[in-house]
Input
Amino acid sequence: MAEKKIILTGDRPTGRLHLGHYVGSLKRRVELQNSGEYDEINILIADDQALTDNAENPGKIRDNIINVVLDYLSVGIDPAKTTICVQSALPALHALTFYYMNMVTTARLSRNPTIKAEIQMRGFEDEGLPAGFFTYPVSQTADITAFDATVVPVGEDQLPMLEQAREIVEKFNRVYGETLVLPKAMLPENETQRRLPGVDGKAKMSKSLGNCIYLSDDPKTVKKQVNGRMFTDPQHLRIEDPGHLEGNVVFTYLDAFSTEEDFREFLPDYKNLDEMKEHYCRGGLGDGTCKKFLISVLDKTMTPIREERAKWEKDIDAVYDILQEGTKRAVEKTNATLARVRAAMRIDYFKDRSIIKEWEELLRKAD
Ligand code: TRP
Output
């Protein structure tokens, strides 16, 4: 069953994707896609999941589906290698969610640390908690298992989701026999990929804080965010003063984005980031120089992404077809899993007429 190497990952379409998504997951997805090591790569645009805390605002989700697809295509997700699909158009996921609900207790769901944190963040404790939101880990298990995913590349915050999924899979297989593939999480490789802070140094990039750099931002906006809002070292008042790297967002971003080639091209005074850091800490390197370098580095990363995006934006018809095509493939795949699940649960009454014999036998015996 699980000989194939299958990736499933997903995003909630609640906004445009930003540099945090890029270093945290998108870049890796493109590498995995191009590694040729996987039999299948699937990316799910989780609009149903997004609705669990945006039920009053389906228009926002609808709008952001196109934003997210354009972000995927512009960073190099290739629809010939990766299936991009829309969750709400996959009815098998809804059915699987319903069955998996019985494989988990409300007590267990309440203990899920991701859900706990998210409930708090959204103020659901006071407002009331939508049952759909509370149970989205179950629906995410449906996403993962419907594709027979062996590997799920996610951020650290999603680890409890994977743990929950594995428990549901184990329980299901225990109750109904080996049916579902047990998935594994794949975490970002290094610290800088784990979490890129907002330009203001806050742990999370968030639209409401205005501390994001979006993949689709133009050069002027990027420059404004770096020069105007990016946090450095508050103790570094004069250029000669020793600077500190701790909590210095400019250097966190340089860690994530700069290469030795960038130094040769834009800042040949230093061979690499280590040399630059050393000078900064010693004193004598100004924040302005560091920011200017970072702007060049970001521009170099983002220019090809912008160009690719501009191309696709002119052909939304083609983007629509990609999404529809991927979703069609996903419908087939997830329906096949649902059929397997229903067979394991022995609720596939209308698969063929063989149950008639079974029922007749039963009635004969009862006589
Ligand atoms: N919960 C994920 C997030 O907020 C998105 C997601 C939905 C997902 N379905 C998934 C991730 C399946 C991995 C696998 O980022």
Observations:
- The CA atoms of residues 6 and 277 lie 41 Å apart.
